[in-house]
Amino acid sequence: MSEEILINSTPSEARVALVENGMLQEVWMERAGHNGYIGNIYKGEVSRVLPGLQAAFVDIGLERTAFLHARDMVRQDPVASAEEAQPEPLISDLLRPGDHLIVQVIKDPLGSKGARLTTNISIPSRFLVMLPDCDVVGVSVRIEEEEERARLKELVQRLHDESQGHGHIVRTNAEGVNDFALSADMAYLNKVWHSIMERAECAAPATSVFEDLSLPLRALRDMMHEDVDRVRIDSPDTLEQAREFAQRFLPDWLDRIEEYTAERPIFDLFGVEDEIEHALQPSVPLKSGGYLVFDQTEAMTTVDVNTGGFVGHRNVGETIYKTNLEAVQALARQLRLRNLGGIIIIDFIDMADEEHRRQLMRALERALERDPVKTSTTEISALGLVEMTRKRTTESLERRLCVPCPQCDGRGTIKSSETVCLEIFREIMRSSRQFEASTLMVLASSRVVEKILDEQSSTVAELEELIGKSIRFQREDQYAQEQYDVVLL
To answer: How far, in Å, CA of 185 to CA of 249, rounded?
Structure first.
């Protein structure tokens, strides 16, 4: 597996693309004035306590108050089983309006919802995640070799005991590193935590006391590993910052960070710009001729798999099975690329063969293994649907780059011109009965006026005779198809 990280940085925006074997897999962006809040730590002030929801609204200085649930105030042991989990306390026993507390954002504001908070602070570095005021040592489940897991846990436990410090989770990037690297990370995290505590003591309520690294530096911290061949950066200032960061935390990979100086824009490499544009479209074509259709709503995302023009096998069952298998690979990539989260319903093409259904689910599980975001899937239902969840922490690519259509207000459809014509006729009848006027003027879009004059002229004549008033029409090029006004003259 060959990977490359492309970083496009301008004063107004930073973008990072992860390319695997020449194909875009993930893209992140951060715009000036619209940075994400995940990982930031605030001194919050409780504004409301909601016992019925086991939650509280906390003012942290953002546009909307943030949301803190009681379960996010209990530090659970990350290596404990579900039976060993601590019970959820009553929110009314924990907080009162006006209380001050240190909180961390774990979900950005999404749509009309405020940010999601936790009091269980975690601070990441290159190899470790510090858990302040917690006496636990854990190892990422993505490190699978038991011998390596035991080595790392023993190493961190020894360093943890020597410093009498806080809890730590060993990140996937720590696989194979020595005690010196882990010790340096631990010392760095201790300094960061002391700095946060000092700021929190003198900070006013609803203010920030710690902000995470910028997007390019977060990409280096979280994504650099042995499969990354190189990082290309097109901004000299960002390149300098990246090299300074790497010199301090990633010295072994410093030579992989390169400046991109070609005239061709960096995101034109590997067709990244085109891939982003395609990811905003609902339909995703498959090489076989089939296609996927994504429909993202507030409650969930649905994915429909269709055979399209694929008729490559005489056996219908085999054709459907091959299309579903191809759809699995495209689906797993699109989930990452579009950053889709929450509940996802996949409507695979119905398969009668039970073995095909079993193999399809195994293929889906394997395809999702490379996804760094936590996912959970169910078996295929009797209706041929697969339900899955993918942890959602930030807005999807579509929600970040797009706004609802002003014509349809995000519905995806608009009323037909015929429907609008009939609405206009009803409004004419209503207005003629309520107000005295000799003439009525209808202002509407060109398409609607043309339809009335070309196809509904007889109806207009009958209407004029019925109400005893003259009706005139005026085209308004700035009007949307659903927009019209009836004016008394």
So the answer is: 8
CA distances from 405 to 399, 422, 477 (A): 12, 24, 18
The tokens 């042991």 sit on which residue? Answer: 77
Contacts 24+ apart (CB under 8 A), 91-95: 91/49, 91/50, 91/51, 91/53, 91/54, 91/55, 91/56, 92/49, 92/51, 94/70, 95/46, 95/49, 95/56, 95/68
CA distance 204 to 198: 12
Tokens of 359: 């193999």
* Conformational region of residue 195, where left means phi above 0, alpha means psi within -120 to 50, and beta covers everything else: alpha
Under 8 Å between Cβ of 116 and 73: no
Q: Residue 302: its pLDDT value, please?
A: 95
Spatial distance between the Cα atoms of 193 and 195, rounded to a whole number of angstroms:
5
pLDDT per residue as tens digits for the range 157-196: 888 776 666 889 998 878 888 888 888 888 888 888 988 9
Separation between Cα atoms, residue 449 and residue 299, nearest integer Å: 38
| DSSP letter string, 362-393 | HHHHHHHTT-SS-EEE----TTSEEEEEE---
Cα 39 to Cα 79, 125, 208: the distances in Å are 22, 12, 11
Cα distance between residue 146 and residue 407, in whole Å = 57
Q: Do the Cβ atoms of 380 and 386 come closer than 8 Å?
A: yes
- What local confidence, expressed as pLDDT, does residue 165 receive? 67
Which residues share a beta bridge with 102?
43
Mean pLDDT of 423-432: 89
H or E, element range at 8: strand 3-10
Longest CA span, the chain? 96
Give the Cα separation of 160 and 130 in Å (integer).
11
- Name the strand (E) or helix (H) holding 41: strand 41-50
Tell me how many degrees the CA angle 367-370-376 measures, rounded to the nearest 5.
70
Question: Which are the contacts of 399, defined by CB distance < 8 A and separation ≥ 6?
Answer: 110, 111
What is the DSSP secondary-structure string of 389-413?
EE---S--HHHHH----TTTTTSS-
Query: 237-291: per-residue pLDDT in tens?
Result: 999 999 998 888 778 889 999 999 998 999 998 999 999 999 999 999 998 888 9
| pTM (predicted TM-score) | 0.78
C-alpha distance from residue 66 to each of 47, 117, 210 (Å): 10, 7, 17
Structure-block tokens of residue 11: 């004063």
